[in-house]
């Protein structure tokens, strides 16, 4: 069964990318939605198959040792495949209407969108360093093109800054890969993990990989490229970038750390990564509070929320807290993907309505567009970590991991980060409930645009009630060779 599903996840988006270049979206409307439906169904089918069979190991195709170029499936991989399908489908549905309403050019959006989806699935399913690199580069090139969509000078500047940062990150990662291959003679993640258990890699390798992937993930203070790119891109693009793209490099980071880094890096590097994450939470939250444009508030919020992900490293340093930390970070990643996609899409609707990107232009919009504002608010509940959202459960797990490990300083960060989130998000609501003088001149976006962020925001809240399902599948191991 998996031998049929997995190639579909990789080759279907590539085929649709080529077709979308040849066929205009307006003429090939149903062809595009057929591809999205096919990808969503295959993603759900893969997740259900792995969940039902209990995390059996699957390695498909590729080249055998010493290269070990392969695809692999475990609970973590299929969960990210499923959430990618949810967010990408929602962003595509929104973009199909939004780009016309915002006078955007959808012609180049669709091929880049499909290449991005192919790259994301390639990263989630990669079982070796080579496929991870190819997937990351495909994601980067597609994401940079999506940021530049429309060709405005500001978008081109942001896209170039993003490209240069991503290339620097790729250089660090590639140097680490070269050293690993030279030292161990294989690119397979499972093979490297087995060899590293006997002889840990040099610290230089871990530092190079960490620096390169931290650049791509926009970890503070390497985040300078993210706010301009996310803030100026079209709203469906911003949703894809924040919810999925920056998660891909963190996913690779986590895979390498668990397989190679824990034995070689030591306590001090784990704490240093946590400290940089803390810097992102505090600096990103403070800068979000000071922004005058709505999407820049949401973009700097991404810098802050990314910081929480790096608590994985200090809190998972062995002992009983490791599993709590992994569960908390993975659940935060998933809830953030849903909430931030909802928030960017809702922000796009609000900007369309008021005709201005500024926060102070939202005065009176609470009466005119309450549905989109409510979607923004539900997403904010999860980002602030309030019950009963997925964000609350994630931070509760991280709080428990901090207490049980005796690392009380991360408790202070979780509290301070939540308060900062409340300040910059409630600032948006304060502006929207003010009344402006004169006659309202709002534009009402198409109704379909308001439904999509609402569904995503409700899913972010609902994740708090059903957290045990994704967590149970995420824990399914990748061990012991088998087949389908």
UniProtKB/TrEMBL annotation:
Stored InterPro entries: CPA3_Na-H_Antiporter_D, ND/Mrp_TM
Keywords, ordered alphabetically: Cell membrane, Membrane, Transmembrane, Transmembrane helix
Key word Cell cycle present: no
Lipid bilayer topology: Multi-pass membrane protein
Subcellular location(s) per record: Cell membrane; Membrane
Domain NADH:quinone oxidoreductase/Mrp antiporter transmembrane positions: 126-419
Key word Transmembrane present: yes
Regions that span the bilayer: 27-50, 79-101, 108-126, 132-150, 162-184, 204-226, 238-258, 264-289, 296-313, 333-356, 368-387, 407-426, 455-479
Record-stated family: Belongs to the CPA3 antiporters (TC 2.A.63) subunit D family.
Protein name, entry field: NADH:quinone oxidoreductase/Mrp antiporter transmembrane domain-containing protein
Species annotation: Zobellella iuensis
């Amino acid at each position: 069964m998996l031998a049929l599903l997995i190639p579909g996840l990789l080759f279907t988006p590539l085929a649709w990318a080529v077709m979308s270049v040849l066929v205009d979206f307006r003429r090939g409307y149903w062809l595009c939605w057929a591809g999205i439906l096919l990808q969503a169904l295959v993603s759900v089918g893969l997740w259900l198959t792995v969940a039902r069979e209990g995390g059996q190991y699957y390695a498909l195709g590729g080249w055998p040792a010493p290269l070990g170029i392969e695809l692999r499936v475990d609970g973590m991989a299929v969960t990210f495949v499923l959430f990618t399908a949810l967010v990408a489908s929602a962003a595509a549905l929104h973009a199909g209407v939004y780009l016309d309403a915002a006078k955007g050019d959808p012609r180049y959006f669709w091929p880049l969108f499909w290449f991005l989806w192919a790259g994301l699935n390639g990263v989630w399913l990669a079982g070796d360093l080579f496929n991870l690199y190819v997937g990351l580069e495909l994601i980067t090139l597609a994401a940079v093109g999506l940021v530049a969509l429309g060709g405005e000078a500001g978008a081109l500047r942001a896209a170039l800054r993003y490209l240069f940062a991503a290339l620097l990150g790729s250089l660090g990662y590639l140097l680490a890969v070269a050293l690993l291959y030279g030292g161990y003679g294989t690119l397979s993640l499972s093979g490297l993990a087995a060899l590293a258990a006997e002889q840990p890699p040099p610290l230089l390798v871990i530092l190079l990989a960490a620096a390169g992937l931290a650049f791509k993930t926009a970890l503070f203070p390497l985040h300078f490229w993210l706010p301009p790119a996310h803030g100026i891109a079209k709203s469906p693009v911003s949703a894809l970038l924040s919810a999925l793209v920056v998660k891909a490099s963190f996913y690779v980071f986590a895979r390498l750390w668990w397989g190679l880094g824990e034995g070689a890096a030591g306590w001090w590097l784990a704490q240093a990564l946590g400290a940089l994450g803390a810097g992102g939470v505090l600096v990103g939250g403070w800068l979000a509070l000071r922004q005058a444009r709505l999407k820049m508030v949401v973009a700097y919020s991404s810098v802050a929320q990314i910081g929480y992900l790096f608590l994985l490293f200090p809190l998972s340093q062995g002992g009983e807290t490791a599993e709590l930390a992994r569960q908390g970070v993975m659940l935060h990643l998933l809830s953030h993907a849903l909430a931030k996609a909802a928030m960017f899409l809702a922000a796009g609707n609000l900007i369309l309505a008021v005709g201005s990107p500024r926060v102070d232009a939202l005065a009176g919009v609470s009466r005119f567009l309450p549905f989109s504002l409510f979607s923004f608010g539900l997403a904010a509940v999860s980002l602030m970590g309030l019950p009963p959202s997925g964000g609350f459960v994630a931070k509760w797990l991280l709080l428990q991991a901090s207490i049980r490990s005796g690392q009380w300083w991360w408790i202070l960060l979780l509290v301070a980060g939540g308060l900062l989130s409340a300040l910059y998000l409630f600032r948006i609501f304060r502006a929207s409930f003010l009344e402006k003088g004169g006659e309202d001149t709002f534009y009402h976006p198409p109704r379909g645009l308001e439904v999509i962020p609402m569904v995503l925001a409700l899913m972010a809240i609902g994740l708090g009630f059903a957290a045990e399902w994704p967590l149970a599948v995420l824990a399914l191991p990748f061990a012991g060779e088998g087949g389908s």
